[in-house]
Amino acid sequence: MQQISPDLWLICTIFAACFGACVGSFLNVCIYRIPLDQSVVTPRSHCMSCNSLIPWYHNIPIFSYFILKGKCANCKASFSFRYAGIELLTSFLFVVICCMFPPKGAVAPLYLNTIPDIAAVPVLWVFISGLIIATFVDFDHFIIPDSVSIGGMVAGIILSALVPSLHGQSLWTNGLIASVTGLLAGFLPLQFVRVGSTFLYRKLGRIDNDEYAMGFGDIKLIGAIGAFTGWQGAVFAMISAAFYGTIIAIPFLVSGRKKLIDRIPFGPYLALGALTWIFWSERILYFYFGLLRPPA
Ligand SMILES: [Zn+2]
């Protein structure tokens, strides 16, 4: 197991916090532009209201929002707090991943999993970035873009072969096998349910012949989650997403606002389930299934 000195760890973690904020800023662009089929590279960021370009010194992640009090410096139109919120969230999650690779003489806090290989840290950053885009695009548009779900499958397979320790493996072939198995374990069962239920619902006349009983985006997202986390992660993400969905639905049901639940998409629950798995899978497997040695 690799370990770095506490000083070096601190420098790396401060870098991760800043880098995470910058990535979060880019994720904001992706969340806004990908569903509109716009380039995420050009044009540069501009105010939605007066169309003026935002100079770099007004575009510093997190800080600019607070310094400019959430307003455009040119026309004073308000920006949503969500932009800064996503930058903060990304920065925070990048730091949490660093905490899973503790320095010499320390253990991961909050019962987090321990990452044995520093190369897995940036891979998990990539994975988390994809989950953040999927979550917020799904909130906004009720879709999960293919560039995130199918792109995530491809990225998951390639990165698993490059960094097999992501799946607790040392050979690249085993990393690749774990990733493809995870992708299929997530994708195939739900695709089977989707095809079957669509056939049945069409026969029963519950839906039209050009409609489907389930969305396809969530199924592709589960495939991408499996490509990064293996079959256990894919299965866990599905089960825990249903669990989180139920928990969130209870207050709406009790207060008689049943209609509001339909306005919450499923992708964010899947992302939350996948995060739970990345952070605590060792504990979950140990305490609930007794499958592993006690985590260190
Ligand atoms: Zn403006």
Summarize the structure.
The protein is mainly alpha-helical and 296 residues long. 64% of the residues lie in helices and 0% in strands.
List the helices and strands and how they pair.
Elements: H1 6-33, H2 63-67, H3 81-99, H4 120-141, H5 146-162, H6 172-204, H7 217-254, H8 258-261, H9 267-289
The chain binds zinc ion.
Characterize the structure shown.
With 296 residues, this protein is mostly helical. It has 2 domains: 1-110, no CATH class; 115-296, no CATH class. Helix content is 64%, strand content 0%. It has helices at residues 6-33, 63-67, 81-99, 120-141, 146-162, 172-204, 217-254, 258-261, 267-289. α6 packs across α7 (217-254). The protein is globular and about 60 Å long. Zinc ion is lined by residues 47, 49-50, 52, 72, 74-75, 77.
